[in-house]
Amino acid sequence: MSIPGRIVATQALIGLCCIAVLAALDEGLAGATRSAALALAATLIPSLYYAWVVQRSLRPAQLLMHGVLRMVGTLTLMAVAIVRFGVEPVGFFVTFALLQLAYLVPVVSRD
Prior knowledge:
- By secondary structure, the chain is mostly helical.
- The chain contains 5 helices and no strands.
- The protein has helices spanning 3-25, 30-56, 60-85, 89-100, 105-108.
- The protein is flat.
């Protein structure tokens, strides 16, 4: 699997684990579970797009532009989640922070 594919897969796994843990605790954390799912969506959708672009382009300028678009897309989806759905901060931001750890996958994985 390509490095961008591994990052997206790791993000999905981390996000689903966060959702499962918060759902298992479920002592008034239904908002946290929903917020974790929103953080996963806000991160995974732009990451999937960027991984798809990386597989089809080798031009550095184009990759840089799409990397910026990925960041803008993530921030936009985060803003929509916060404003529209009123997320629970701990569930949302802890999940989001853990999802960012997926970018360390290329550093620690060996082919």
